[in-house]
Design goal:
The chain has 14 helices and 12 strands. It is an alpha/beta fold and 492 residues long. Helix 8 packs antiparallel against helix 9, helix 11 runs antiparallel to helix 12 and helix 12 packs across helix 13.
Protein backbone atom coordinates (compact mmCIF):
# COMPACT_ATOMS: atom_id res chain seq x y z
CA UNK A 1 0.00 0.00 0.00
CA UNK A 2 2.82 2.42 0.86
CA UNK A 3 4.01 2.56 -2.75
CA UNK A 4 0.58 3.82 -3.86
CA UNK A 5 0.57 6.74 -1.44
CA UNK A 6 3.03 8.96 -3.30
CA UNK A 7 3.44 10.61 -6.68
CA UNK A 8 6.59 10.85 -8.79
CA UNK A 9 7.14 14.34 -7.36
CA UNK A 10 6.81 13.00 -3.81
CA UNK A 11 9.33 10.25 -4.54
CA UNK A 12 11.81 12.78 -5.94
CA UNK A 13 11.53 14.88 -2.76
CA UNK A 14 11.93 11.77 -0.61
CA UNK A 15 15.04 10.72 -2.57
CA UNK A 16 16.67 14.15 -2.13
CA UNK A 17 15.91 14.17 1.58
CA UNK A 18 17.27 10.64 2.02
CA UNK A 19 20.44 11.42 0.07
CA UNK A 20 21.04 14.47 2.29
CA UNK A 21 20.51 12.40 5.42
CA UNK A 22 22.84 9.64 4.23
CA UNK A 23 25.57 12.19 3.51
CA UNK A 24 25.30 13.57 7.05
CA UNK A 25 25.36 10.01 8.41
CA UNK A 26 28.83 9.41 6.98
CA UNK A 27 30.21 11.69 9.67
CA UNK A 28 27.61 11.10 12.38
CA UNK A 29 25.95 7.63 12.18
CA UNK A 30 22.29 7.76 13.12
CA UNK A 31 19.19 5.60 13.22
CA UNK A 32 15.63 6.95 13.06
CA UNK A 33 13.30 4.99 15.33
CA UNK A 34 9.56 5.54 14.98
CA UNK A 35 7.42 5.02 18.09
CA UNK A 36 3.71 4.82 17.51
CA UNK A 37 0.56 3.28 18.91
CA UNK A 38 -3.05 4.14 19.45
CA UNK A 39 -3.93 6.45 22.32
CA UNK A 40 -3.12 5.22 25.84
CA UNK A 41 -0.85 2.47 24.51
CA UNK A 42 2.08 4.01 26.40
CA UNK A 43 4.21 5.77 23.77
CA UNK A 44 5.33 8.59 26.07
CA UNK A 45 6.16 6.17 28.88
CA UNK A 46 8.07 3.86 26.54
CA UNK A 47 10.31 6.63 25.19
CA UNK A 48 10.93 8.03 28.67
CA UNK A 49 11.89 4.59 30.04
CA UNK A 50 14.01 3.85 26.94
CA UNK A 51 16.09 7.00 27.44
CA UNK A 52 16.17 6.89 31.26
CA UNK A 53 17.46 3.32 31.43
CA UNK A 54 20.22 3.99 28.90
CA UNK A 55 21.35 7.26 30.45
CA UNK A 56 21.31 5.87 34.00
CA UNK A 57 22.64 2.39 33.26
CA UNK A 58 19.43 0.57 34.03
CA UNK A 59 18.97 -3.13 34.67
CA UNK A 60 18.97 -4.47 31.10
CA UNK A 61 20.30 -8.04 31.25
CA UNK A 62 19.13 -8.99 27.75
CA UNK A 63 20.47 -5.84 26.08
CA UNK A 64 23.85 -7.23 25.03
CA UNK A 65 25.82 -3.99 24.67
CA UNK A 66 24.82 -2.93 28.20
CA UNK A 67 25.27 -6.38 29.72
CA UNK A 68 28.80 -6.72 28.32
CA UNK A 69 29.80 -3.27 29.55
CA UNK A 70 30.48 -1.91 26.07
CA UNK A 71 28.36 1.23 26.45
CA UNK A 72 30.58 4.06 27.67
CA UNK A 73 27.77 6.57 28.08
CA UNK A 74 24.44 7.68 26.64
CA UNK A 75 23.35 11.31 26.60
CA UNK A 76 20.85 13.67 24.98
CA UNK A 77 21.82 16.01 22.16
CA UNK A 78 20.04 18.64 20.13
CA UNK A 79 17.75 17.02 17.60
CA UNK A 80 18.50 17.58 13.90
CA UNK A 81 14.97 18.71 12.92
CA UNK A 82 14.41 22.25 14.19
CA UNK A 83 10.84 22.38 12.85
CA UNK A 84 9.70 19.36 14.94
CA UNK A 85 8.76 19.88 18.62
CA UNK A 86 11.16 18.30 21.11
CA UNK A 87 9.96 15.35 23.16
CA UNK A 88 9.89 16.78 26.69
CA UNK A 89 11.83 13.99 28.34
CA UNK A 90 12.75 15.90 31.49
CA UNK A 91 9.13 16.82 32.25
CA UNK A 92 8.00 13.23 31.76
CA UNK A 93 10.72 11.85 34.05
CA UNK A 94 9.73 14.36 36.72
CA UNK A 95 6.09 13.29 36.45
CA UNK A 96 7.01 9.61 36.82
CA UNK A 97 9.70 9.87 39.49
CA UNK A 98 8.81 12.90 41.60
CA UNK A 99 5.02 13.15 41.30
CA UNK A 100 4.33 9.47 40.56
CA UNK A 101 1.79 10.37 37.90
CA UNK A 102 1.67 9.20 34.31
CA UNK A 103 2.82 11.85 31.82
CA UNK A 104 0.46 13.44 29.33
CA UNK A 105 -0.35 11.38 26.25
CA UNK A 106 1.06 12.01 22.79
CA UNK A 107 -1.02 14.67 21.03
CA UNK A 108 1.27 15.50 18.12
CA UNK A 109 4.60 14.55 16.60
CA UNK A 110 7.80 15.12 18.59
CA UNK A 111 11.42 14.04 18.45
CA UNK A 112 14.42 13.40 20.69
CA UNK A 113 18.07 12.54 19.90
CA UNK A 114 19.88 10.09 22.18
CA UNK A 115 23.55 9.51 21.40
CA UNK A 116 25.27 6.33 22.55
CA UNK A 117 29.06 6.00 22.77
CA UNK A 118 30.12 2.37 22.77
CA UNK A 119 32.95 -0.06 22.12
CA UNK A 120 32.51 -2.47 19.21
CA UNK A 121 32.24 -6.17 20.10
CA UNK A 122 34.92 -7.12 17.56
CA UNK A 123 38.55 -6.10 17.25
CA UNK A 124 38.00 -5.25 13.59
CA UNK A 125 35.07 -3.04 14.55
CA UNK A 126 37.08 -1.29 17.26
CA UNK A 127 39.75 -0.51 14.67
CA UNK A 128 37.43 1.15 12.14
CA UNK A 129 34.25 2.13 14.00
CA UNK A 130 33.88 5.47 15.76
CA UNK A 131 31.73 3.72 18.36
CA UNK A 132 29.03 6.38 18.30
CA UNK A 133 25.37 6.08 17.30
CA UNK A 134 22.68 8.75 17.46
CA UNK A 135 19.14 7.38 17.84
CA UNK A 136 16.55 9.89 16.65
CA UNK A 137 13.33 8.85 18.39
CA UNK A 138 10.23 10.06 16.54
CA UNK A 139 7.01 9.97 18.56
CA UNK A 140 3.70 10.26 16.71
CA UNK A 141 0.06 9.23 17.29
CA UNK A 142 -1.03 5.97 15.70
CA UNK A 143 -4.35 7.61 14.87
CA UNK A 144 -2.49 9.71 12.31
CA UNK A 145 -1.12 6.57 10.65
CA UNK A 146 -4.68 5.32 10.16
CA UNK A 147 -5.20 8.30 7.87
CA UNK A 148 -2.58 7.15 5.38
CA UNK A 149 -4.85 4.59 3.63
CA UNK A 150 -7.12 7.54 2.80
CA UNK A 151 -4.51 8.66 0.25
CA UNK A 152 -5.56 5.71 -1.90
CA UNK A 153 -9.31 6.38 -1.58
CA UNK A 154 -11.54 8.99 -3.17
CA UNK A 155 -14.34 10.64 -1.22
CA UNK A 156 -17.00 8.17 -2.34
CA UNK A 157 -14.86 5.18 -1.23
CA UNK A 158 -14.09 6.85 2.09
CA UNK A 159 -17.81 7.48 2.66
CA UNK A 160 -18.80 3.91 1.77
CA UNK A 161 -16.16 2.44 4.12
CA UNK A 162 -17.18 4.78 6.96
CA UNK A 163 -20.85 3.80 6.72
CA UNK A 164 -19.97 0.11 6.53
CA UNK A 165 -18.00 0.31 9.78
CA UNK A 166 -20.63 2.50 11.44
CA UNK A 167 -23.31 -0.12 10.72
CA UNK A 168 -21.48 -2.96 12.49
CA UNK A 169 -23.32 -4.14 15.62
CA UNK A 170 -20.53 -2.93 17.93
CA UNK A 171 -20.84 0.61 16.49
CA UNK A 172 -24.46 0.91 15.35
CA UNK A 173 -25.89 2.46 18.53
CA UNK A 174 -22.99 4.93 18.82
CA UNK A 175 -23.33 6.08 15.20
CA UNK A 176 -27.13 6.22 15.10
CA UNK A 177 -27.43 9.99 15.56
CA UNK A 178 -24.79 10.79 12.93
CA UNK A 179 -26.22 8.30 10.41
CA UNK A 180 -29.70 9.79 10.84
CA UNK A 181 -28.34 13.30 10.35
CA UNK A 182 -26.41 12.21 7.24
CA UNK A 183 -29.45 10.42 5.80
CA UNK A 184 -31.50 13.62 6.14
CA UNK A 185 -28.90 15.70 4.26
CA UNK A 186 -29.29 16.11 0.50
CA UNK A 187 -25.88 15.80 -1.20
CA UNK A 188 -27.17 17.75 -4.20
CA UNK A 189 -28.45 20.67 -2.12
CA UNK A 190 -26.49 23.91 -2.11
CA UNK A 191 -23.39 23.87 0.06
CA UNK A 192 -24.20 25.12 3.53
CA UNK A 193 -21.58 25.78 6.21
CA UNK A 194 -23.85 25.04 9.16
CA UNK A 195 -24.98 21.72 7.69
CA UNK A 196 -21.36 20.73 7.09
CA UNK A 197 -20.46 21.72 10.63
CA UNK A 198 -23.30 19.74 12.21
CA UNK A 199 -22.38 16.64 10.21
CA UNK A 200 -18.68 16.95 11.05
CA UNK A 201 -19.33 17.47 14.77
CA UNK A 202 -21.75 14.54 14.93
CA UNK A 203 -19.31 12.30 13.04
CA UNK A 204 -16.45 13.29 15.38
CA UNK A 205 -18.64 12.62 18.45
CA UNK A 206 -19.38 9.12 17.15
CA UNK A 207 -15.65 8.41 16.63
CA UNK A 208 -14.83 9.63 20.16
CA UNK A 209 -17.56 7.42 21.63
CA UNK A 210 -16.07 4.40 19.84
CA UNK A 211 -12.76 5.15 21.52
CA UNK A 212 -14.21 4.97 25.06
CA UNK A 213 -13.34 2.18 27.49
CA UNK A 214 -16.60 0.28 27.02
CA UNK A 215 -15.95 -0.31 23.30
CA UNK A 216 -12.20 0.40 22.98
CA UNK A 217 -12.34 0.45 19.18
CA UNK A 218 -9.24 1.33 17.19
CA UNK A 219 -10.07 1.87 13.50
CA UNK A 220 -11.30 5.46 13.67
CA UNK A 221 -10.08 7.58 10.75
CA UNK A 222 -9.72 10.47 10.12
CA UNK A 223 -7.24 10.66 13.00
CA UNK A 224 -7.26 14.47 13.30
CA UNK A 225 -10.97 14.30 14.20
CA UNK A 226 -9.80 12.75 17.47
CA UNK A 227 -6.62 14.84 17.80
CA UNK A 228 -7.20 18.05 15.82
CA UNK A 229 -4.37 20.12 17.32
CA UNK A 230 -4.09 23.52 15.64
CA UNK A 231 -6.50 22.40 12.88
CA UNK A 232 -9.49 22.51 15.24
CA UNK A 233 -12.35 24.32 13.53
CA UNK A 234 -10.58 24.61 10.16
CA UNK A 235 -12.39 23.77 6.88
CA UNK A 236 -9.95 20.87 6.44
CA UNK A 237 -11.67 19.18 9.42
CA UNK A 238 -15.21 20.35 8.65
CA UNK A 239 -16.34 17.45 6.50
CA UNK A 240 -18.01 14.09 6.98
CA UNK A 241 -19.00 11.04 4.90
CA UNK A 242 -22.27 11.15 2.98
CA UNK A 243 -24.38 8.03 2.27
CA UNK A 244 -25.20 6.31 -1.03
CA UNK A 245 -22.93 8.34 -3.28
CA UNK A 246 -22.03 5.44 -5.55
CA UNK A 247 -20.61 6.68 -8.85
CA UNK A 248 -22.47 9.98 -8.73
CA UNK A 249 -20.43 13.03 -9.67
CA UNK A 250 -20.67 15.99 -7.36
CA UNK A 251 -22.86 18.83 -8.61
CA UNK A 252 -20.83 22.11 -8.61
CA UNK A 253 -21.65 24.22 -5.59
CA UNK A 254 -23.41 21.34 -3.78
CA UNK A 255 -22.92 19.92 -0.29
CA UNK A 256 -21.38 16.85 -1.94
CA UNK A 257 -18.86 19.04 -3.79
CA UNK A 258 -17.97 20.93 -0.59
CA UNK A 259 -17.39 17.73 1.38
CA UNK A 260 -15.36 16.20 -1.41
CA UNK A 261 -13.17 19.29 -1.77
CA UNK A 262 -12.46 19.44 1.95
CA UNK A 263 -11.70 15.73 2.11
CA UNK A 264 -9.16 16.13 -0.71
CA UNK A 265 -7.68 19.19 1.06
CA UNK A 266 -7.30 17.12 4.21
CA UNK A 267 -5.33 14.50 2.29
CA UNK A 268 -3.20 17.06 0.45
CA UNK A 269 -2.34 19.44 3.28
CA UNK A 270 -2.45 17.17 6.35
CA UNK A 271 -1.99 13.50 5.52
CA UNK A 272 0.49 13.53 2.63
CA UNK A 273 3.07 15.87 4.27
CA UNK A 274 3.03 13.71 7.40
CA UNK A 275 3.79 10.60 5.33
CA UNK A 276 6.46 12.23 3.17
CA UNK A 277 8.26 14.16 5.91
CA UNK A 278 8.18 11.57 8.69
CA UNK A 279 7.11 8.02 7.84
CA UNK A 280 9.37 7.66 4.78
CA UNK A 281 12.40 8.71 6.85
CA UNK A 282 12.22 5.88 9.42
CA UNK A 283 14.74 3.01 9.75
CA UNK A 284 13.12 1.04 12.59
CA UNK A 285 9.63 1.02 14.08
CA UNK A 286 7.86 -0.08 17.25
CA UNK A 287 4.06 -0.29 17.31
CA UNK A 288 2.64 -0.25 20.85
CA UNK A 289 -0.84 -1.66 21.40
CA UNK A 290 -3.05 -1.74 24.47
CA UNK A 291 -4.30 -5.28 24.01
CA UNK A 292 -5.47 -5.37 27.62
CA UNK A 293 -8.05 -2.64 27.01
CA UNK A 294 -9.31 -4.41 23.89
CA UNK A 295 -9.53 -7.73 25.75
CA UNK A 296 -11.47 -6.01 28.49
CA UNK A 297 -13.99 -4.66 25.98
CA UNK A 298 -14.56 -7.98 24.18
CA UNK A 299 -13.87 -9.87 20.96
CA UNK A 300 -15.26 -7.15 18.69
CA UNK A 301 -12.69 -4.72 20.08
CA UNK A 302 -9.88 -7.27 19.57
CA UNK A 303 -10.95 -7.84 15.97
CA UNK A 304 -11.09 -4.08 15.39
CA UNK A 305 -7.61 -3.72 16.90
CA UNK A 306 -6.37 -6.32 14.41
CA UNK A 307 -7.93 -4.27 11.59
CA UNK A 308 -6.19 -1.13 12.86
CA UNK A 309 -2.80 -2.83 13.21
CA UNK A 310 -3.13 -4.19 9.66
CA UNK A 311 -3.78 -0.70 8.29
CA UNK A 312 -0.90 0.75 10.32
CA UNK A 313 1.56 -1.88 9.10
CA UNK A 314 0.39 -1.39 5.51
CA UNK A 315 1.65 2.19 5.59
CA UNK A 316 5.30 1.38 6.28
CA UNK A 317 7.99 0.84 3.67
CA UNK A 318 9.49 -2.49 4.75
CA UNK A 319 12.50 -4.36 3.47
CA UNK A 320 16.21 -4.13 2.90
CA UNK A 321 17.71 -2.24 -0.02
CA UNK A 322 21.06 -2.45 -1.76
CA UNK A 323 24.02 -0.19 -1.10
CA UNK A 324 22.92 1.98 -4.03
CA UNK A 325 19.15 2.13 -3.42
CA UNK A 326 19.67 2.90 0.27
CA UNK A 327 21.22 6.21 -0.78
CA UNK A 328 17.86 7.39 -2.12
CA UNK A 329 15.22 5.47 -0.19
CA UNK A 330 14.92 4.41 3.44
CA UNK A 331 13.31 1.10 4.31
CA UNK A 332 12.13 -0.13 7.70
CA UNK A 333 13.98 -3.39 8.23
CA UNK A 334 12.77 -4.16 11.77
CA UNK A 335 9.29 -3.75 13.24
CA UNK A 336 8.42 -4.62 16.83
CA UNK A 337 4.79 -5.06 17.84
CA UNK A 338 4.60 -4.70 21.61
CA UNK A 339 1.63 -5.32 23.87
CA UNK A 340 1.99 -2.89 26.75
CA UNK A 341 0.86 -3.00 30.39
CA UNK A 342 2.08 -6.55 30.97
CA UNK A 343 2.45 -5.53 34.62
CA UNK A 344 -1.37 -5.50 34.89
CA UNK A 345 -1.41 -9.31 34.86
CA UNK A 346 0.64 -11.98 36.63
CA UNK A 347 3.66 -13.32 34.76
CA UNK A 348 1.87 -16.69 34.47
CA UNK A 349 -0.39 -15.02 31.89
CA UNK A 350 2.36 -13.23 29.95
CA UNK A 351 2.80 -16.12 27.53
CA UNK A 352 -0.93 -16.08 26.84
CA UNK A 353 -0.93 -12.33 26.23
CA UNK A 354 2.02 -12.69 23.89
CA UNK A 355 0.32 -15.57 22.05
CA UNK A 356 -2.82 -13.47 21.53
CA UNK A 357 -0.81 -10.54 20.20
CA UNK A 358 1.29 -12.83 17.99
CA UNK A 359 -1.90 -14.29 16.50
CA UNK A 360 -3.14 -10.76 15.86
CA UNK A 361 0.22 -9.64 14.46
CA UNK A 362 0.73 -12.69 12.23
CA UNK A 363 -2.58 -12.12 10.48
CA UNK A 364 -1.93 -8.38 10.20
CA UNK A 365 1.60 -8.93 8.86
CA UNK A 366 0.34 -11.39 6.23
CA UNK A 367 -2.28 -8.92 5.02
CA UNK A 368 0.08 -5.94 5.12
CA UNK A 369 2.82 -7.76 3.12
CA UNK A 370 5.92 -6.83 5.12
CA UNK A 371 8.24 -8.82 2.88
CA UNK A 372 11.88 -8.16 3.75
CA UNK A 373 11.31 -6.74 7.23
CA UNK A 374 12.04 -8.65 10.44
CA UNK A 375 8.99 -8.57 12.71
CA UNK A 376 8.85 -9.58 16.37
CA UNK A 377 6.18 -9.55 19.09
CA UNK A 378 6.63 -8.88 22.82
CA UNK A 379 4.53 -8.34 25.92
CA UNK A 380 6.18 -5.50 27.84
CA UNK A 381 5.77 -2.89 30.55
CA UNK A 382 8.13 0.01 29.86
CA UNK A 383 7.59 1.12 33.46
CA UNK A 384 6.54 -1.62 35.85
CA UNK A 385 3.96 -0.26 38.29
CA UNK A 386 3.29 -3.50 40.19
CA UNK A 387 5.03 -6.46 41.79
CA UNK A 388 3.75 -10.01 42.18
CA UNK A 389 2.59 -12.11 45.10
CA UNK A 390 0.09 -14.80 46.12
CA UNK A 391 -2.95 -14.85 48.41
CA UNK A 392 -4.93 -17.73 49.84
CA UNK A 393 -8.65 -17.90 49.19
CA UNK A 394 -10.04 -20.92 51.01
CA UNK A 395 -7.96 -23.85 49.83
CA UNK A 396 -6.88 -22.06 46.68
CA UNK A 397 -3.72 -19.99 46.22
CA UNK A 398 -4.20 -17.16 43.75
CA UNK A 399 -1.43 -15.26 41.91
CA UNK A 400 -1.93 -11.53 42.41
CA UNK A 401 -0.35 -8.24 41.44
CA UNK A 402 0.38 -5.62 44.08
CA UNK A 403 0.42 -1.89 43.49
CA UNK A 404 -1.22 1.46 44.22
CA UNK A 405 -4.37 1.96 42.10
CA UNK A 406 -4.98 5.46 40.78
CA UNK A 407 -7.41 7.60 42.75
CA UNK A 408 -10.97 6.91 41.60
CA UNK A 409 -10.33 3.42 40.24
CA UNK A 410 -12.88 0.90 41.50
CA UNK A 411 -13.25 -2.85 41.98
CA UNK A 412 -16.64 -4.30 42.94
CA UNK A 413 -17.82 -0.87 44.01
CA UNK A 414 -14.77 -0.13 46.18
CA UNK A 415 -13.06 3.13 45.19
CA UNK A 416 -9.33 3.63 45.75
CA UNK A 417 -7.76 6.79 47.16
CA UNK A 418 -4.53 6.80 45.16
CA UNK A 419 -2.29 6.18 48.19
CA UNK A 420 -3.26 2.71 49.45
CA UNK A 421 -1.39 -0.30 48.13
CA UNK A 422 -3.51 -3.35 47.40
CA UNK A 423 -3.29 -6.89 46.01
CA UNK A 424 -5.50 -7.65 43.00
CA UNK A 425 -6.34 -10.85 41.15
CA UNK A 426 -7.03 -9.65 37.57
CA UNK A 427 -8.22 -12.99 36.20
CA UNK A 428 -6.81 -15.39 33.64
CA UNK A 429 -6.39 -14.84 29.92
CA UNK A 430 -7.88 -17.56 27.71
CA UNK A 431 -5.40 -20.28 26.77
CA UNK A 432 -6.60 -20.41 23.14
CA UNK A 433 -5.64 -17.17 21.31
CA UNK A 434 -8.30 -17.59 18.62
CA UNK A 435 -11.12 -17.48 21.16
CA UNK A 436 -10.70 -13.73 21.73
CA UNK A 437 -11.41 -12.77 18.10
CA UNK A 438 -14.93 -12.13 16.85
CA UNK A 439 -16.16 -14.79 14.43
CA UNK A 440 -17.38 -13.67 11.00
CA UNK A 441 -20.84 -14.87 11.95
CA UNK A 442 -21.00 -12.48 14.89
CA UNK A 443 -20.83 -9.45 12.64
CA UNK A 444 -18.75 -7.59 15.17
CA UNK A 445 -21.18 -7.98 18.03
CA UNK A 446 -20.44 -6.16 21.27
CA UNK A 447 -20.91 -9.44 23.16
CA UNK A 448 -17.43 -10.30 24.40
CA UNK A 449 -17.67 -14.03 23.73
CA UNK A 450 -14.99 -14.88 26.33
CA UNK A 451 -14.19 -14.22 30.00
CA UNK A 452 -13.02 -10.62 30.41
CA UNK A 453 -9.97 -9.38 32.25
CA UNK A 454 -10.82 -6.65 34.71
CA UNK A 455 -7.88 -4.50 35.67
CA UNK A 456 -7.36 -1.15 37.30
CA UNK A 457 -4.78 1.50 36.45
CA UNK A 458 -1.92 1.87 38.89
CA UNK A 459 0.27 4.79 39.89
CA UNK A 460 3.91 4.71 38.77
CA UNK A 461 6.15 2.89 41.26
CA UNK A 462 8.09 4.52 44.05
CA UNK A 463 11.69 4.18 42.93
CA UNK A 464 14.20 2.43 45.14
CA UNK A 465 17.35 4.18 46.35
CA UNK A 466 20.77 2.74 47.03
CA UNK A 467 22.53 3.04 50.39
CA UNK A 468 24.28 6.12 48.96
CA UNK A 469 20.93 7.73 48.17
CA UNK A 470 21.12 7.26 44.39
CA UNK A 471 17.74 6.74 42.70
CA UNK A 472 17.68 3.58 40.62
CA UNK A 473 16.42 3.43 37.04
CA UNK A 474 12.80 2.84 36.15
CA UNK A 475 11.77 -0.84 36.58
CA UNK A 476 10.35 -2.61 33.54
CA UNK A 477 9.28 -5.89 31.96
CA UNK A 478 11.23 -6.91 28.80
CA UNK A 479 12.31 -3.39 27.88
CA UNK A 480 15.79 -4.86 27.46
CA UNK A 481 14.52 -7.34 24.86
CA UNK A 482 12.84 -4.49 22.99
CA UNK A 483 16.09 -2.49 22.99
CA UNK A 484 18.09 -5.48 21.76
CA UNK A 485 15.74 -6.04 18.85
CA UNK A 486 15.45 -2.37 17.86
CA UNK A 487 19.05 -1.15 18.16
CA UNK A 488 21.23 -4.02 19.42
CA UNK A 489 22.67 -4.93 16.01
CA UNK A 490 23.75 -1.33 15.41
CA UNK A 491 25.91 -1.46 18.55
CA UNK A 492 27.73 -4.69 17.66
Amino acid sequence: MATSLTTITDEAMIALDTLSGRAAGLFSPSLRLGVTGLSRAGKTVFITAFVHNLIHGGRLPLFEAQKSGRIARAFLEQQPDDAVPRFQYEDHVDALVSSRVWPDSTRAISELRLTIEYESASGWGRLFSRGRLSVDIVDYPGEWLLDLPLLGKDYAEFSADAFHLASLPVRADLSEEWRALAAAADPRADADEMTARRLAESFASYLKACKGDSRALSTLPPGRFLMPGDLDGSPALTFAPLPDLGEKRAKPGSLHAMMERRYEAYKTHVVKPFFREHITRLDRQIVLIDAMQALNAGSAAVTDLERAVTEILSCFRPGRGSLFTDLFSRRIDRILIAATKADHIHHESHDRLQAIVRRLADRAVARADLTGAEVDVLAIAAVRATREGTVRQGRETLPVIIGTPLAGETINGEAFDGTTETAIFPGDLPDKPGSVFASPASGGSHDSGHPTIRFVRFRPPKLERTAEGVTLSLPHIRLDRALQFLIGDRLS
